[in-house]
C-alpha cells in the first residue's frame, strides 16, 4: 500500500513548478493524470532536446509515474471530458498563467460546483497585488523573492542560484498544501483552494536573509566577512559570498588540485564547539589559548586571516581527504561535489535518491528519485508517459466512456489521435 493510494490527481501542470509537485504526489501513490494539449503537450517535452525525436530530459525527469491524456480543453467535447475528470478527481493542480483557467471556463467557483470535495492547487508567480497578472519563470522568482540580492559577492552583481528554488521550491510548498488540505477534507468533507506564489516560496527559503535585514538595526553583522574587512554595511542585507548563513563562520576553501579541477574545494565551518580540534588539525595549536583567537567573538574580525591559514592546510589535501580527516573530529566540512561525481555515487542509487530509468524512445537515463523517504510507502520510479499514451484507458477506465459515446469523444478531435500501447 502507498500513502496516497486511491487519490486521483488531475494534473494540469507544465514546465517545472507544477510537475515537481504532481511527481511527488505520484511517488506517494496517487494516480496522476496529466492533461496535455493534443499534438503538443507540455512545452518541455521538446525543450533542450539531446536525443532527436525523444522526449527531453527536462520533461522525463519531472513527470515520472504519471499517465498522459491529450485533451483540448477549449473544445466543447474537451470541456465535457474535463468536467468528467473534475468530477472523478480528488485534486486538480495547475500552474497556468494568471486567468488561463477562468478563460477556459473553469473558475474555482465552477470547479467547486462540479465537485465540492475537490482540492484545487495553483502556482502563480506572485500573490494578489500589483504583480498578480505577471507570467513568471524561475529566475524572476529568485530575484523577486529576495534570493538574488543576497547571493553573490559583495563587489559583484546579484546572482541566481543553480538550485531551482523558484520552480521546484514552489512545487514542494504546494505539495505540502495539498496533502494538508486532503487531511482537512477527511474531517470537513470539503475541498479547498491551495495557492502558492513563487515569490512567497523563494522568500520563505530566504528567511534567514530577512532575519539579517532586521539585525542590521542593531549594528554590523559580525559573522559576515565584510565586518572583518572593515567594509561598512548599507541599508539592506548584503551579498555574503560563501559566508555561512548561520552563527558559525564558514567558507569555501581550495583543496589539492584546485588549479585544474574547478570543483576541488571544500566547505569548512569553524564551529565554536570544535575550535580546538580545528587548531590541532591545521597545525596552529597556539590559537586554542591565544588572546584574539581563543573565543568566538574575538575571531570575527580575523576571519580572512583564519580561513587563509586553514586554506593553506586544505590545499595540501584532496576534498575527500579533508572530509576523512575532519569528520572523526566532528568538524563540519563538505566537499564541493560536481554533478558528474554525484551521478557516479553508487551510495545515492542504493537509497533511491538517484535512479536509472528506462525509456522506450531514449533508452536509459539518470534521474533524481524521491528525496522524501516514508518507511511504510515505498517509491518505485517509473518512466514518464509518452504524449497521450493513456488517453484511451483514461477515457474508458477512469471516466467510463464506451461504445458510441467513446467514438463520439474520439471523433470530436478533442482528445487527439488515439495511440497504440507504447512498447516498454
Ligand atoms: C510558465 C508560464 C510563464 C508559461 O506561459 P505560457 O507558455 O504562455 O503558457 P500559459 O500558461 O499562458 O498557457 C498558454 C495557453 O495554453 C492554453 N492551454 C493549456 N493547456 C491547454 C489544453 N490542454 N487545451 C487547450 N488550451 C490549453 C491555456 O489555456 C492558455 O491559453 P490562453 O492564453 O488563451 O488563456 C505561465 O504558465 C505562468 O506564469 N505560470 C504560473 C507561474 C509558473 O508556474 N511559472 C513557472 C513555470 S516552471
How would you characterize the overall build of this protein?
- There is one protein chain.
- The protein has 424 residues and is of the alpha/beta class.
- It contains 18 helices and eleven strands.
- 35% of the residues lie in helices and 12% in strands.
- The strands form three sheets. The protein has a six-stranded parallel β-sheet, with helices on both faces. A three-stranded antiparallel β-sheet has the order 7-8-9, with helices on one face.
- The radius of gyration is 26 Å and the shape is elongated.
- It starts with 7 loop residues before the first strand and ends in a 13-residue tail after the last helix.
- The chain has helices at residues 17-27, 57-60, 76-88, 100-103, 108-114, 138-144, 167-188, 198-205, 207-215, 225-228, 275-281, 296-299, 303-314, 319-326, 339-343, 346-350, 391-398, 403-411; strands at 8-12, 31-36, 66-70, 91-94, 119-124, 193-197, 250-254, 265-269, 333-335, 354-357, 365-368.
- Strand 2 (31-36), helix 2 and strand 3 form a beta-alpha-beta unit.
- The longest helix is centred in the middle third of the chain and has 22 residues, at 167-188.
- The protein binds coenzyme A (COA).
- Coenzyme A (COA) binds next to helix 1, strand 2, helix 4 and strand 5.
- Coenzyme A (COA) is lined by residues 15-18, 35-37, 71-74, 95-97, 100, 103-104, 123-125, 135-137, 167.
Amino acid at each position: 500500500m502507498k500513502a496516497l493510494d486511491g487519490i486521483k490527481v488531475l494534473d494540469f501542470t507544465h514546465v517545472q513548478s507544477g510537475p515537481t509537485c504532481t511527481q511527488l504526489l505520484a511517488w506517494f501513490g496517487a494516480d496522476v493524470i496529466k492533461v496535455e494539449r493534443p499534438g503538443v503537450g507540455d512545452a518541455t517535452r521538446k525543450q533542450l532536446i539531446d536525443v532527436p525525436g525523444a522526449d527531453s530530459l527536462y520533461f522525463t525527469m519531472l513527470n515520472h509515474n504519471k499517465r498522459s491524456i491529450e485533451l483540448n480543453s477549449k473544445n466543447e467535447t474537451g470541456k465535457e471530458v474535463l468536467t468528467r475528470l473534475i468530477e472523478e478527481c480528488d485534486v486538480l493542480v495547475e500552474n497556468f498563467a494568471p486567468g488561463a483557467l477562468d478563460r477556459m471556463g473553469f473558475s474555482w467557483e465552477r470547479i467547486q460546483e462540479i465537485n465540492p470535495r475537490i482540492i484545487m492547487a495553483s502556482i502563480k508567480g506572485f500573490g494578489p497585488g500589483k504583480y498578480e497578472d505577471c507570467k513568471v519563470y524561475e529566475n524572476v522568482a529568485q530575484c523577486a523573492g529576495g534570493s538574488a540580492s543576497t547571493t553573490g559577492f559583495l563587489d559583484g552583481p546579484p546572482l541566481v542560484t543553480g538550485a531551482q528554488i523558484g520552480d521546484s521550491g514552489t512545487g514542494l510548498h504546494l505539495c505540502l498544501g495539498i496533502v494538508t488540505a486532503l487531511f482537512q477534507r477527511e474531517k470537513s468533507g470539503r475541498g479547498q483552494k491551495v495557492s502558492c506564489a513563487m515569490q512567497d516560496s523563494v522568500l520563505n527559503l530566504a528567511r534567514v536573509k530577512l532575519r539579517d535585514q532586521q539585525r542590521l538595526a542593531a549594528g554590523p553583522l559580525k559573522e559576515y566577512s565584510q565586518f572583518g574587512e572593515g567594509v561598512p554595511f548599507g541599508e539592506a542585507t548584503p551579498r555574503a559570498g560563501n559566508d555561512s548563513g548561520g552563527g558559525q563562520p564558514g567558507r569555501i576553501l581550495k583543496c589539492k588540485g584546485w588549479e585544474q579541477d574547478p570543483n576541488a574545494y571544500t566547505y569548512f565551518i569553524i564551529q565554536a564547539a570544535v575550535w580546538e580540534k580545528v587548531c590541532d588539525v591545521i597545525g596552529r595549536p597556539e590559537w586554542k589559548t591565544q588572546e584574539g583567537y581563543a573565543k568566538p567573538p574575538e575571531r570575527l574580525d580575523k576571519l580572512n586571516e583564519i580561513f587563509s591559514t586553514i586554506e593553506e592546510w586544505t590545499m595540501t589535501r584532496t576534498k575527500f581527504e579533508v572530509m576523512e580527516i575532519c569528520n572523526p573530529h566532528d568538524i563540519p566540512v563538505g566537499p564541493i561535489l560536481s554533478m558528474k561525481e554525484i551521478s557516479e555515487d553508487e551510495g545515492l542509487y542504493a537509497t533511491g535518491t538517484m535512479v536509472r530509468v528506462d525509456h522506450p524512445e531514449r533508452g536509459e537515463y539518470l534521474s533524481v528519485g524521491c528525496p522524501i523517504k516514508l518507511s511504510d510507502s515505498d517509491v518505485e520510479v517509473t518512466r514518464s508517459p509518452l504524449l497521450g499514451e493513456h488517453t484511451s484507458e483514461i477515457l474508458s477506465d477512469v471516466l467510463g466512456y464506451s461504445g458510441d459515446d467513446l467514438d463520439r469523444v474520439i471523433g470530436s478531435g478533442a482528445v487527439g489521435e488515439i495511440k497504440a500501447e507504447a512498447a516498454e
